[in-house]
Write a structure and sequence with these properties.
alpha/beta, five-stranded antiparallel sheet, eight-stranded parallel barrel, 702 residues, TIM Barrel
Length: 702
């Protein structure tokens, strides 16, 4: 770039225009960098215990609900394959983030720290997982959600709670979700329990914030050619990795990050939506990470030069990085076509050699005047290149031209059929003229089922109809169904009814964590639920703290089953398309729970409340006479799905609890008939909630 206009804002340096030319523009740019550095406190970058983070190029987003991570049968984490695959493909990960709460948080009163405590094996189990990751030389970050202000409050500050989790897990860093800064209070608190904890922001920090927060994601903020990240220009040890969760083609962003000396975040399970890195993406990432690690010394060059001249300034940009006698050039082709031919003119001494580190081998050059050569390159469209100049006699530099990866099925999107619920086994049928006590008959007929809204979470957190392969489409198609007659419980199953089941069967789940957590357990009687007592006055309240399998066990004993999602909505809504079981307007006198459709009203505060008797709202009955089909507690449906990466089931009806204060909570409160919530399933101790119960259905002889 021979003519430049220097414009510096908070995040990027823009080098476009035609005001300053020749040596002057770069001289002025260097002067500006010197001034900014004199005002920048780089003490955090000088700390030996944070040095490793400067060249952490590859980060993995580990969604803890991924079925590949947790072995349900043996109740153990299984991280070995993921770590071994990473070594084979990329030489291992530098960082793994343990993501734990969103999008589940908000379904009950548990806060973000409770989610770590209730993961399989609790904090001790997670510490063992961290130990396995550390054994591979990989660092582990936990996640902090500053927006979690509407759930159960800790008796201490978030900073103190974070310190406890970091200490318990032996974590190495904290990912600051939705944040672009950290403060000295957090720094001081972490240094007391484990010096060297890294703070990584989701958003790009300002120059001032970068003094404490020494790295971040580049989520929509990797500069295009002609622009440079201000923090990276002032302090090249600032650690950034690109990320684009929703893209189907990540290769251009990976290449652009490499051009700027930045790595990438490998994130495929997007809160329950599988968006894999393709074979092409993984190959690009593999090549870029290989070169970033090989020349990590150069990418820390305090005097690196952005936007050096090329012979194709409209199409190809270049940066220059030095490390001793070695010089590295990164290049990016921003055009939509391949470049073949002369790209850049470089000075070269007789005792130096130029290598094409991207394609392998010595670079093709032709002599030019004044001791310079013209370098000819092939660069694919929206891709990158790399040149290395080094003394003759040195071993050839590491090349990105490495063996291709073997294709794997996990590199592809999930087939739509994977989102179909598993087949439902019929119950023992009832005779048409025999209606068991406590049940109502739902007559067969045509039913138009429409689920307009799911809940206000990002696309990946939502349930996707089988016809859709992308998470940007969030709903069901309208379906016209021919429903068979069936029987359904008039009310949610109560504590008293569940107690009867326990006494009759001696049922005891394999994992007892949080099972009937609200019941009273006599001293020393934690292992036999038959000896537990219902809290006084709660006999006729819905049973909660039961997971999907606990509900199924009761249903089998009662010679019933759980309702499908279609059956549940039909019983709640009838055939006239009403919004609420009782009509088209929310009425707080007809249900236990605030209006769950008001999630965008920031004036509404969290509503904790509690369960009520299952027959407390007779005026809230559905057209068929079912009670509490909006509010009181969410209800399990027989809708379990497993796409090979995430298990989930559909909840219906809403509940008494609603967390407020952030758009990121799973909406609560009483929900309309046409809303459903995707409940990610992982571990019984986590899946059992104070806000989820169930009711049963029974098939009818035709």
């Amino acid at each position: 770039m021979s003519k430049q206009k220097i414009t510096i804002n908070n995040l990027t340096i823009n080098l476009v225009g035609s005001v300053i030319s020749g040596k002057n523009w770069r001289k002025k740019l260097e002067k500006r960098r010197s001034v900014l550095r004199s005002q920048f406190d780089a003490s955090q970058y000088e700390r030996p215990d944070l040095t490793w983070y400067h060249t952490a190029f590859l980060e993995y987003f580990l969604f803890l609900y991924d079925t590949s991570i947790y072995d349900r049968e043996n109740n153990r984490y299984q991280i070995e394959k993921l770590l071994n695959d990473a070594e084979e493909e990329f030489g291992g990960y530098d960082i793994i983030i343990l993501w734990h709460a969103f999008p589940r948080i908000g379904v009950d009163e548990r806060n973000q720290f409770d989610f770590y405590r209730d993961m399989p094996g609790g904090l001790e189990g997670l510490r063992d997982l961290v130990k396995q990751i550390h054994a591979k030389g990989t660092y582990v970050f936990i996640n902090y959600n500053p927006w979690d202000v509407g759930t159960r409050r800790e008796p201490e500050s978030d900073v103190e709670a974070l310190a406890e989790i970091v200490s318990a897990l032996d974590a190495d860093g904290i990912f600051l979700d939705t944040m672009d800064a950290a403060n000295l209070q957090l720094r001081e608190a972490m240094d007391k329990i484990k010096p060297g904890i890294v703070f990584e922001a989701e958003l790009t920090p300002s120059v001032r914030s970068g003094e404490i927060c020494t790295g971040s994601w580049g989520q929509g903020s990797i500069p295009l050619p002609g622009n440079v990240l201000t923090l990276k220009w002032i302090e090249p040890r600032f650690s950034m990795r690109g990320v684009d969760r929703n893209s189907a083609n990540r290769s251009p962003l990976i290449a652009l990050g490499f051009f700027h000396g930045m790595g990438h975040v490998l994130w495929e399970n997007i809160f329950g939506w599988w968006n894999p890195f393709s074979l092409e993406d993984r190959t690009m990432l593999r090549r870029c990470i290989r070169l970033l690690r090989a020349h990590r010394d150069a990418f820390l060059d305090p005097n690196w030069q952005p936007c050096v001249d090329t012979l194709r300034p409209v199409e190809v940009a270049a940066h220059r990085w030095n490390a001793g006698e070695k010089t590295v050039y990164t290049l990016f082709n921003s055009s939509g076509r391949s470049i073949d031919g002369p790209v850049i003119r470089l000075p070269i001494k007789d005792d130096m050699e130029i290598y094409d580190a991207w394609n392998g081998g010595k670079a093709q050059t032709t002599p030019d005047s004044d001791g310079q050569v013209i370098v000819h390159l092939h660069i694919d469209p929206m891709s990158c290149g790399c040149l290395v100049i080094q003394p003759k006699g040195w071993p050839p530099p590491i090349s990105a031209d490495i063996a291709s990866l073997a294709d794997k099925s996990s590199y592809y999107r999930v087939r739509p059929e994977a989102h179909l619920s598993r087949p439902v086994k019929p119950s023992e049928p009832a005779k048409p003229n025999e209606i068991p006590n406590g049940m109502v008959l739902i007559p067969g007929g045509k039913f138009v089922m429409k689920v307009d809204t799911i809940f206000g979470a990002p696309p990946g957190a939502r349930y996707t109809h089988p016809q859709y392969s992308y998470a940007s489409n969030h709903g069901h198609l309208t379906q016209e169904l021919n429903m068979k007659s069936f029987l359904i419980d008039r009310t949610e199953v109560t504590n008293a009814q569940y107690k009867e089941f326990l006494n009759a069967t001696g049922y005891k789940p394999k994992v007892m964590k949080n099972f009937l957590k609200h019941w009273i357990k006599p001293e020393g009687e934690n292992s036999d639920p038959r000896l537990w007592q219902i809290p006084p006055g709660k006999e006729n309240h819905p049973v909660v703290y039961v997971d999907l399998d606990d509900a199924r066990a009761y249903a089998r004993w009662a010679k019933k089953r759980l309702p499908t999602e279609e059956e549940w909505q039909y019983a709640a809504q009838g055939t006239d398309g009403r919004k609420w079981p009782w009509g088209d307007k929310y009425d707080p006198k007809r249900c236990n729970g605030p209006d769950g459709t008001m999630e965008n009203d920031e004036s509404i505060k969290s509503s904790f409340g509690g369960t009520t008797p299952v027959d407390a709202y007779p005026d809230g009955a559905s057209p068929f006479g079912c009670l509490d089909m909006s509010g009181n507690v969410w209800e399990w449906t027989e809708s379990e799905r497993d796409d090979g990466h995430t298990r989930y089931a559909i909840l219906r009806g809403g509940c008494y609890f609603r967390a407020r204060g952030s758009i990121w909570y799973m909406p609560g409160g009483a929900q309309p008939c046409n809303r459903h919530a995707k409940m990610l399933l992982l571990y019984p101790g986590l899946d059992r909630c104070s806000t989820i119960g169930f009711r049963c259905v029974k098939d009818v002889e035709e």
